[in-house]
Amino acid sequence: YYILYKMNNLILVRHGQSLWNKERRFTGWADIDLTEEGKLEAKLAGKLVKELNIEFDAYFTSVQKRAINTLKIILDILKKSNAEINKAWELNERHYGVLTGLNKDEIIKKHGIKQVQIWRRSFDVPPPPMNLQHPYQNTYKSVPKDKIPKSESLKDTFERVVPYYKKKVEPLIFLKKNILIVAHGNSLRALCKRLFNISKDNIINFEIPTGNPLLIRFEDNFKVNDINYLDSNRAKKILFKI
User: Fold this and answer.
1) Which of 60, 59, 72 is nearest to 33 (CA)?
2) Pairing with 203, which of 115, 140, 157, 159 sits 20 to 30 Å away (CA)?
């Protein structure tokens, strides 16, 4: 057990189902909360993490309430509700531009599945930008005005998530600390692209389910040693070969 504990543990959790996940709407930077189902997913995530009996050294999340509230539910189950939470806008979901708030099925009817798949899954094609009159133009107080995007590709998301990870999280991994990050589908896809060295072409097929903790363990040389979803029934393909 001692050896298991000394191995670095990084757990990534995509927030539980949000109201707009349920309604199949593009969410992005809109600050949308969890559904009751999403809260249950967060509770299950908390129970699965608790079973590992890991003592965490740091907790990270975005500045969006669906991720923050998922982390709070997990911390409550871990009996760590007073723990310090590191909130970073760099871990926010990808900005969906003008698509924000729109229903995915209606957008598919209007633009075709092929175009929508390019916007949703390609590495470097952003959706059309959001204009200043957009109803979900949201300026988070913690985000410098010049950093607020009008639209983002996964590449753009990668370029804010990965530097933040390298600066704030990687040094803790080097110190053999155990870390829990609760974020979003695309910010976690961007991070996994780097951690698992997934190619631009393969990242299109990489998806992270809501509320299912992804446990990553590192070897002494900080290479990824082992990866698995804690809820195997809801696991998605990881696209990584050790």
Assistant:
1) 72
2) 140
Catalytic residue among 15, 41, 90, 95: 15
pLDDT exceeds 80 at position 237: no
95 is catalytic: no
23, 37, 90, 93: which one is catalytic?
93
User: pLDDT for 52-62, tens place per residue?
Assistant: 999 999 999 99
Respond yes or no: is residue 55 known to be catalytic: no
C-alpha dihedral, 23 to 13 to 94 to 147, nearest 10°: 130
Strand order, beta sheet including 179-183: 85-87, 58-61, 179-183, 9-14, 214-218, 224-229
DSSP letter assigned to residue 39: H
DSSP for residue 141:
T
Residue 136 has pLDDT above 90, yes or no: no
Helix, strand, coil in percent for the chain, rounding step 5: 45, 15, 45
How many helical (H) and strand (E) elements, i.e. helices and strands, does the chain have? 9, 6
- Alpha carbons 93 and 188: distance in angstroms, whole number: 9
Global model pTM greater than 0.90: yes
User: How far is it, in rounded angstroms, from Cα 162 to Cα 160?
Assistant: 6
Higher-pLDDT residue of 46 and 233 is 46
217-227 average pLDDT score: 83
Q: Is 31 left (phi over 0), alpha (psi -120 to 50) or beta?
A: beta
Cα separation, 36 vs 71, in Å, equals 15
